[in-house]
Fold:
Amino acid sequence: MKSIKGKHLVWLQDWSPEEIETVLQTAVTMKAAFLSGVRPQPLSGKTLAMIFAKPSTRTRVSFEVAMTQLGGHAIYLGTNDLQLGRGETVADTARVLSRFCDGIMIRTFAQKDVEDLARYSRVPVINGLSDLVHPCQILADMLTIIEKKGKLSGIRFAYVGDGNNVCHSWILGGTKMGMEIRVATPEGYEPNRDIVEMGRESAERYGGNLVLTTDPAHAVRDADVVYTDVWTSMGQEKEREQRLKAMQPYQVNAKLFSGADKNAIFMHCLPAHRGEEVTDEIADGPMSVIFDEAENRLHVQKALLALVM
Ligand code: CP
Ligand code: NVA
Structure:
């Protein structure tokens, strides 16, 4: 396996399929060991700084628990508790935190903040979500797909709804792993053009496929995985009404889901806005693996932290 010690996770575009595979394989091994009671602490004495400019349930708790289980420590830093909130630059914050800590996780708005943090940090920086991407989520979801479907390559994956950060990370990551990524969004809510271009290049290079459409039924037809996310992401609250209207035909409900493969699974990064992008019937149905995805945030991030820190 390839060493990724010291590597930043700014976005999956910088990661090779081999590096992604390394994290996933390590996660499979570490999860099995953990569940059988074997609990090594490779990060004993190490500290992860966690900067949050947006709220979080899963990311905060899974990273903090991951550090505890690996024998290390995590510090929660809300941006308003840091001098960052009073005008200290991201670059200076990176230079200071990386003299104390062994890794930095950040959840923020601008992708550039994550890039700057990585540029000026001596220790690995992990993107815990920006407006552009959410790579840790996709790694956890890939682990979940491997558990449920046994592979990534060739999987027909339908993303339905808003062309947002989660959608972008699926385009970047899925095409590298040889998946068929189908994206159905309303007009005006398509994924970022540069990301689509990168996805097309990766699909070409690694044997994946990327299909964009405005027709949700077309994307879902015979799919192995049906995935959605909230229609209004953090920071877009003012656009909520207009988004609700535009995305109504993209709701994942029993009718839409019935077009998928008979063994299809339903995925959602959570938090879900039930009754909007997904109905209770689907979110709580036998095909739903949404809480397995949440659990796998912990396992995949433990692998990631143990490998990069
Ligand atoms: N999926 C996810 O990142 O959830 P949180 O916003 O709760 O961290
Ligand atoms: N797209 C969502 C994901 C939340 C985990 C958001 O950015 O709010």
Remarks:
- The beta strands are 47-52, 73-78, 103-107, 125-127, 156-160, 180-184, 209-213, 225-228, 265-268.
- The mean pLDDT is 97.
